[in-house]
């Protein structure tokens, strides 16, 4: 580690004949309470401002001090100036930086840095806000106000480190052109982006011509930060992808050069502010426990001023370093934040150490080495520790009671720094690297300097050698060498001429200085005038606008008036018309009034009627209501009755359904009976037809035989069936068919005394009963009178008719003929003949012919067995006897006899036969 020694001096004891240097300017600014600090109880009046230079800190008893609990102790410190929380940014600038800003125009360098705890208002003091700009914006404003129109638009020189200047040419400004393009790339104004480029391109000859006709200034800005002991250029935007590349530091004898640091020329205040805004955005800040946007690095803004004066052989360069130091903070946090805090604290500590060493060397007459190399910050600011510039320290104080201990330390350091005087070490000659010969106006002379605006040039004096020579030569009263041909005389003349010229130059310089001051005042006046002009221009514009709008309003008013007049004329016309109409209307009105009166009367009468009607209606409605109530009751009653009837009806319906069921079943039964009857009738018809056939056969047989009577004819009183039988033989098929059809009709339609389908059922049993066997013995006697009686009745016909039917066994079929009962076992046959005759006839008729029953059975052989059996049974049980001829029961003798007798009695006609037949059928 290498250190520097500095010359020690006190303000009162100038060394080596130099003027006394002032001590370091230390200012204290106490910020107001912010946020919820007051509610947190931070305002405990820990700081007490005694006057504008002295401040006292109230101390608490701690382990390290001897303060007793009951005792109130104050530490008092003195600084250059104290600003309380009411101090404005502008006030602060005027007090601490305005003069310094002016002095950079005299060639002096300045360093302004802020010290303080984190969250104490350092950044706020430096940068401020757009509405309340801090020290940096105000400083730039002051500089550009001073420069006015004397900005070097040719960019003749560029800075090379702290000490050196380089003449510009077309090649060495490319970086600056690019940086300007890059920094102002978001700027809408293309002029600013390409300004430097156009200077280089459009005025190449000017760049080679470094002559000036007046005093010109150029402002160069560089902005960098010291983060974790590395230097980063803030005018290069950090890439999201790439890691920022730290800049290298190069040390020369007196200063530290930051290699490749971007320095760009700015031509006006706006450009300077935008450049700083661009760099500020790239600064490392983050949220800490104490500050939402805490600075994690020391940000250093370097404003370089290059002054080119036509009377100066070399341009001068001065710097204003404004440094926003990161805040001292307790070493809390972890990882990256802890590393940041340690680096910040280390560099601040080194800075304070340098000041302390300086102070100690000064007070204790020591020559201790400055530890400036312990941090990058102090390395860069080394020129200021060796007196190459003036230093201002602004200590920002956080008034919170929580940090009173740190505040006390800071104020202690402030008081120490305030007493420290940095004596400048003899400056080395500024090197101006001239790449081309300066073609400016020839300097009139050197060594004679009038009052300058702070130009720190070494005054050149007459060589001592010359003085020595001068003393050896004889001179006259005016001091001129006597010998005009001697070299001394010429030297003397030359010196006098030079002096004269220097005097003239001095006068001229004075004149120009005055002119410069005048011009500065004029510039200020012009600027002021320009502001006023601008203001007036704005006012004029607004007035013009007002006039324009007023004239527009006037024109429109005029048009409105014209329109209104036209409207008025029209309205007048309309009014006249309306007046006429009004008169007419008035007349109409009278008429209408009288009409209205009538109408009113009518209305009154109607109203009365209406009221009456209303009353009637009301009455009617009342009646209606009563009726409605009655009706409702009646309806309810009827509804109840209806329900009851409905119930009964349902009950009856049920009953009817049941009866219907019964009726249906009876109907079914009836149908069955009818079917049976129909079947029986059908059977009977077939029997009839067969019987007729038999009768025909019998008649044929009888005709073929010799008409011998076989049976004794019954007494004449007996109506014999033979005629009936005979008549049957005569029936034509047609009559039989008609009969059958009629029977069917009768059975279907029925007769008044016999319903259809039931005729047989109703009357047959009675017939059967009539024809049935006599129940008593008497009745069973086969007496002729009984036959006679029977023959007399209608039923006798049926008896006769049935006589040919022989009784048969049940379930007999025609095939069962051999089993048939003999005539002896058959129904009793009435034989009216004498026994001898009968026997003979029987003998003659019985053999070889079949019996009557057999014949009948054979006759019924084609009929269904059930029907034939029923008939045969019927005949067996009900027939009283069969009249048979002597030969056979099938002979026609008895029948013929009967026929004859019957024919004798009554002639048979087809109609009669039919009726007879009908009667027989009806009896069946
Ligand atoms: N004079 C003031 N008036 C009003 N508010 C202030 C003043 N000084 C500081 N503040 C406010 O205090 C807060 C902290 O200020 P600032 O960030 O400048 O502190 P800092 O010392 O720079 O902190 P760090 O060292 O952490 O960067 C900010 O919100 C700022 O607006």
Automatic annotation (TrEMBL):
Q: Where is the composition biased (Polar residues)?
A: 1-15
Q: Where is the Kinesin motor domain?
A: 23-420
Q: Which Pfam families match?
A: Kinesin
The record ties this protein, via InterPro entries, to: Kinesin-like_fam, Kinesin_motor_dom, Kinesin_motor_dom_sf, P-loop_NTPase
Top-level division of the source organism's lineage: Eukaryota
Q: Where is the composition biased (Basic and acidic residues)?
A: 735-746
| Region (Disordered) location | 1-20, 443-467, 730-819
Can you name a GO cellular component term? microtubule
Q: Name one GO biological process term.
A: microtubule-based movement
List the Gene Ontology MF annotations in alphabetical order. ATP binding; ATP hydrolysis activity; microtubule binding; microtubule motor activity
Say if the entry is tagged with keyword ATP-binding.
Answer: yes
Q: Where do the annotations place ATP binding?
A: 116-123
Residue ranges annotated as coiled coil are 526-676
Q: Keyword Ubl conjugation, does the record have it?
A: no
Q: Which SMART domains has this protein been placed in?
A: KISc (SM00129)
Location in the cell reads:
Cytoplasm, Cytoskeleton
Ordered alphabetically, the record's keywords are:
ATP-binding, Coiled coil, Cytoplasm, Cytoskeleton, Microtubule, Motor protein, Nucleotide-binding
Family named by the database record:
Belongs to the TRAFAC class myosin-kinesin ATPase superfamily. Kinesin family.
Write down the PANTHER family for this protein, in alphabetical order: KINESIN-LIKE PROTEIN SUBITO (PTHR24115:SF1008), KINESIN-RELATED (PTHR24115)
> Under what name is this protein listed?
Kinesin motor domain-containing protein
């Amino acid at each position: 580690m290498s250190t520097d020694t500095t010359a020690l001096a006190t303000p009162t004891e100038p060394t080596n004949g130099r003027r006394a240097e002032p001590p370091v300017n230390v200012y204290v600014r106490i910020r107001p309470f912010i946020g919820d600090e007051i509610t947190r109880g931070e305002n405990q009046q820990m700081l007490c401002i005694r006057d504008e230079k002295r401040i006292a800190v109230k101390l608490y008893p701690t382990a390290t001090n001897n303060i007793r609990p009951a005792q109130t102790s104050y530490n008092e410190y003195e600084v250059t100036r104290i600003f309380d929380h009411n101090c404005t940014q502008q006030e602060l600038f005027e007090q601490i930086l305005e003069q310094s800003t002016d002095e950079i125009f005299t060639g002096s360098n300045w360093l302004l840095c802020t010290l303080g705890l984190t969250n104490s208002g350092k950044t706020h003091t430096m940068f401020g806000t757009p509405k309340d700009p801090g020290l940096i914006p105000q400083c730039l404003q002051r500089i550009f106000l001073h420069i006015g129109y004397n900005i070097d638009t040719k960019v003749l020189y560029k800075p090379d480190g702290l000490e050196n200047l380089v003449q510009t040419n077309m090649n060495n400004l490319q970086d600056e052109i690019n940086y300007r393009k890059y920094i102002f790339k978001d700027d809408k104004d293309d002029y600013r982006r390409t300004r430097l480029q156009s200077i280089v391109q459009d005025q190449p000859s000017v760049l080679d011509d470094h002559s000036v006709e007046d005093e010109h200034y150029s402002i160069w800005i560089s902005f960098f930060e010291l983060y974790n002991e590395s230097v980063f250029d803030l005018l290069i935007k950090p890439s999201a992808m790439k890691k920022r590349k730290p800049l290298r530091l190069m040390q020369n004898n007196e200063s530290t050069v930051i290699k490749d640091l971007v320095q760009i020329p700015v031509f006006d205040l706006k450009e300077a502010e935008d450049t700083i805004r661009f760099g500020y955005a790239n600064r490392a800040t983050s949220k800490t426990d104490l500050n939402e946007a805490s600075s994690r690095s020391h940000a250093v803004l370097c404003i370089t001023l290059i002054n080119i004066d036509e009377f100066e052989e070399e341009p001068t360069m001065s710097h204003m370093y404004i440094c926003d130091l990161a805040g001292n903070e307790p070493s809390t946090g972890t990882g990256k934040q802890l590393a940041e805090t340690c680096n910040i604290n280390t560099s601040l500590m080194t800075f304070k150490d340098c000041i302390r060493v300086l102070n100690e060397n000064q007070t204790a007459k020591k020559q201790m080495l400055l530890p400036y190399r312990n941090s990058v910050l102090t390395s860069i600011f080394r020129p200021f520790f060796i007196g190459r510039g003036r230093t201002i320290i602004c200590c920002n104080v956080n008034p919170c009671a929580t940090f009173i201990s740190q505040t006390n330390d800071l104020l202690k350091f402030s008081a120490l720094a305030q007493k420290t005087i940095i004596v400048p070490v003899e400056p080395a000659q500024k090197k101006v690297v001239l790449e081309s010969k300066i073609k400016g106006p020839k300097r009139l002379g050197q060594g004679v300097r009038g009052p300058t605006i702070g130009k720190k040039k070494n005054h050149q004096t007459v060589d001592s050698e010359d003085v020595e020579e001068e003393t050896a030569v004889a001179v006259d009263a005016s001091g001129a060498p006597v010998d005009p041909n001697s070299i001394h005389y010429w030297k003397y003349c030359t010196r006098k001429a030079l002096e004269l010229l220097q005097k003239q130059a001095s006068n001229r310089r004075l004149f120009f200085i005055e002119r410069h001051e005048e011009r500065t005042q004029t510039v200020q006046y012009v600027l002021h005038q320009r502001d006023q002009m601008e203001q007036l221009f704005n006012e004029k514009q607004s007035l013009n606008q007002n006039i324009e709008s007023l004239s527009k309003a006037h024109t429109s008013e005029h048009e409105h008036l014209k329109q209104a007049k036209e409207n008025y004329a029209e309205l007048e016309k309309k009014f006249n018309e309306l007046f006429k109409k009004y008169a007419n209307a008035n007349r109409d009105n009278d008429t209408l009034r009288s009409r209205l009166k009538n109408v009113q009367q009518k209305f009154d009468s109607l109203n009365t009627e209406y009221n009456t009607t209303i009353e009637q209606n009301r009455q009617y409605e009342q009646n209606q209501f009563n009726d409605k109530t009655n009706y409702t009751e009646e309806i309810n009653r009827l509804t109840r009755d209806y329900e009851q009837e409905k119930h009964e009806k349902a009950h009856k319906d049920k009953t009817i359904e049941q009866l219907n069921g019964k009726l249906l079943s009876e109907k079914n039964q009836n149908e069955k009976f009818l079917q049976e009857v129909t079947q029986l009738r059908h059977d009977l018809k077939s029997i009839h037809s067969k019987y007729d056939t038999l009768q025909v056969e019998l008649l044929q047989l009888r005709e073929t035989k010799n008409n011998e009577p076989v049976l004794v004819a019954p007494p004449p009183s007996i109506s014999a069936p033979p005629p009936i039988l005979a008549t049957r033989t005569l029936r034509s098929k047609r009559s039989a068919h008609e009969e059958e059809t009629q029977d069917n009709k009768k059975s279907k339609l029925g007769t008044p005394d016999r319903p259809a389908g039931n005729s047989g059922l109703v009357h047959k049993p009675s017939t059967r009963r009539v024809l049935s066997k006599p129940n008593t013995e008497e009745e069973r006697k086969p007496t002729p009178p009984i036959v006679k009686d029977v023959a007399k009745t209608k039923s006798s016909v049926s008896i006769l008719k049935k006589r040919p039917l022989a009784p048969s066994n049940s379930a007999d079929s025609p095939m069962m003929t051999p089993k048939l009962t003999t005539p002896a076992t058959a129904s009793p046959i009435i034989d009216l003949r004498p026994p001898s005759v009968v026997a003979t006839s029987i003998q003659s008729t019985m053999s070889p012919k079949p019996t009557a029953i057999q014949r009948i059975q054979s006759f019924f052989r084609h009929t269904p067995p059930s029907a034939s059996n029923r008939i045969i049974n019927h005949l067996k049980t009900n027939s009283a006897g069969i009249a048979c001829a002597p030969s056979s029961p099938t002979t026609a003798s008895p029948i013929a006899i009967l026929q004859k007798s019957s024919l004798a009695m009554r002639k048979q006609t087809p109609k009669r036969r039919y009726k007879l037949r009908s009667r027989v059928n009806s009896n069946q």
